[in-house]
Amino acid sequence: MYSSELTQAQIAVTDNAKVKVVALLEEAGNQVEAVRVYVYGGGCSGMKYGMTFAEQKEPGDALMEDGDVKIVVDPVALGFLKGAEIDYADDGVNSSFVFNNVFQSVGGSGACGGCGSA
Fold first, then answer.
1. Whole-prediction pTM value?
2. Is residue 22, in this structure, part of any structural domain at all?
3. pLDDT tens-digit map of 44-98
4. Quick one: DSSP state of residue 4?
5. Contact 49, 81 (CB under 8 A)
6. 111 belongs to a structural domain
7. Into how many domains does the chain fold?
8. CATH number of the domain bearing residue 19
9. Are 55 and 33 in contact (CB under 8 A)?
């Protein structure tokens, strides 16, 4: 059973990402409670990671609350994210959340063994 409290030890969130999460939540106003981190896909290229707004915390969700930063993760996604770091990168042209060290959570290397690489 997962704790309902999400800690920095489970998923690290950089200061840049926290600032952006707060800005997104402020822009959304009272319509959302938190930012939800989710995973999807799989296969050779591995899981894909994304973020969206959460209108409410669902039963079983883990919540990270640090001041105005509110992030929720469901138990399945948390299994793929433990040990990962969420960062926000903005180089002036492109900006996005970046998920680092995601393969640590599943013990993989990030390489696909069946893609024809020698």
1. 0.78
2. yes
3. 767 788 899 999 889 999 998 888 899 999 988 888 888 889 999 988 888 999 9
4. S
5. yes
6. no
7. 1
8. 2.60.300.12
9. yes
